[in-house]
């Protein structure tokens, strides 16, 4: 199941309820909006505070189809991924660039992690 929460969502208690059961997280920012990039720290902190077990996460820069409107460099996304210990992908949800790769990576790694607990 996939849940999407915007940085401006007000239903924090609902988010915390669902995030506790999370096995994999995609922290997604918009490459044309630097504020969404800065908000990744908030979401990672929320996840760590509310999930009491190991979980997988990846960092995704979305809208790579809008290169002319880019505000967050690819290298900045890559550096943030390294800083946070998160695999990094740039995707375009609009034209599906790299979307399958990002989902497949998270799913495969999640199966590997879950198989360790069996």
> Unreliable runs, pLDDT <50, ≥5 residues?
none
Largest sheet: 3 strands, parallel
By DSSP, the count of extended strands is 3
Query: Which radius of gyration do the C-alpha atoms yield?
Result: 14 Å
Structural class: alpha/beta
CATH topology: Rossmann fold
Shape: globular
What is the CATH homology-level superfamily? P-loop containing nucleotide triphosphate hydrolases
Mean pLDDT: 86
Please report the distance between the alpha carbons of the first and last residues: 21 Å
What is the percent of helical residues?
Answer: 40-55%
User: Architecture, CATH level 2?
Assistant: 3-Layer(aba) Sandwich
Residues in β-strands, percent: 5-15%
Please write the string of helix (H) and strand (E) elements. HEHHEHEH
CATH class: Alpha Beta
Number of domains: 1
Neighbour order of strands in the largest sheet: 1-2-3
What's the helix count? Answer: 5
Give a short overview.
About 45% of the residues lie in helices and about 15% in strands. With about 120 residues, it is an alpha/beta fold.
